[in-house]
Amino acid sequence: MRDAIVLSGWRWETCNVPERIALALAHAGSRVLYCENPVSFIRRARSVTEVVQGVFAFRPVLLSHRLNRVPAFLRTQSAALANQVLAAAATLKLKDPLVFYPHGDYCLGLCREFKKRGLPLVHICMDYELATQMEHVQQSDLTLAIPRVAFQELKVQFGEKIRTLPQLSIIRNGTANVGVRESSEFAKIPRPRLGYLGNLVGRASLPLLGELLSKHPEWNFISFGSKKWFPLPNEHVLPWRAQDELQAVLAGLDVGLMPYDCANPYNLHCVPLKLFDYFALGMPVVSTPIVAIAEYGDLVYAGETAAELAGAVTLALKEADDSPKKARRMALAREHSFENVSEILREILDEWPA
């Protein structure tokens, strides 16, 4: 496996797709320089640090992300960022690194600079946002598409340059440690607990969720974020957790809830990371009818309206502890573990002519 530079619009602790791709590449044998979202030079950057075996995190600096709205500044800052990233890669003695990157304005400008310098570009198409991602796809040498509809549409336009990639579970080998104790913060939150392993912004249907929680005060809902969205005592918000702390949060949930706003194609066609994190514990999952859950049949309880979601939650809470569905969910999570996906990545990159 060639070494890799993985760009991200987040931090290592965010545990999003680029962070999981970095883990999969390291498991496949790459040495990975993981680059966090750049920060202003007046803030403290992260120097090159090995965060897990084979993955070295680094946080470059720039003047300001806002300046990237001006093309001349975008070019200047992108060149400066490229110099920092390549200097860090040189200290690690990376060998012929591939550059993996998601969508994002800073990634686009930086990868234009990398392309000028002859580095092969691998775009990670994480979501169905083709209008904003098209230039990322066009400049890439290879695009890995996770949403099925994105793969199908891009394949028609770009042919063999587009490959499909499964979504990744963060739990090692796709199985959670059932001995992990729940987070201490849950002591004051009664069961049953419904959990959304993320921030609701831009994803959840807030009117739908608000109606569900207001009609069922006996259910406590937990998500990540900095503020509550409803004046309801059964809504609870926790600060984001690092990768190694997520299992303690998962251990305290009874149902994984995914109340996505399906009116938005971005959400309708998403492939949630959290789905496979829930599956890793065999946990019952309740969701609005996003496309990704259709193939899992009775392993996910679905509802479109608040009344339908309430019925789905009721069924999920009644699911027996020894239900065979639990083992089937855990088996699916293992298929999506970053160890398994690393082998798929290896096969794709071995066949790729770059």
Name a few traits of the molecule.
Rossmann fold; 354 residues; 16 strands; 37% helix; 12 helices; 6-stranded parallel sheet
Concise account of the structure shown:
It is built from 12 helices and 16 strands. It is of the alpha/beta class and 354 residues long. The longest helix has 22 residues, at 71-92.
Record the strand order, biggest sheet: 4-5-2-1-7-8-9-10
Largest sheet: 8 strands, mixed
CATH architecture type of the largest domain: 3-Layer(aba) Sandwich
Radius of gyration: 21 Å
Please report the first level of CATH classification, the CATH class of the largest domain.
Alpha Beta
* N to C succession of SSEs: EHEEEEEHEHEHEHEEHEEHEHHEEHHH
- Characterize the overall form: globular
Strand-residue fraction? 15-25%
Total of helices: 12
CATH superfamily of the largest domain: Glycogen Phosphorylase B
Distance between the termini: 13 Å
Multimeric organization: single chain
Structural class: alpha/beta
CATH topology of the largest domain: Rossmann fold
Average pLDDT: 92
Q: Helical amount among residues, as a percent range?
A: 25-40%
How many separate structural domains?
A: 2
Total beta strands: 16
Poorly predicted runs are none
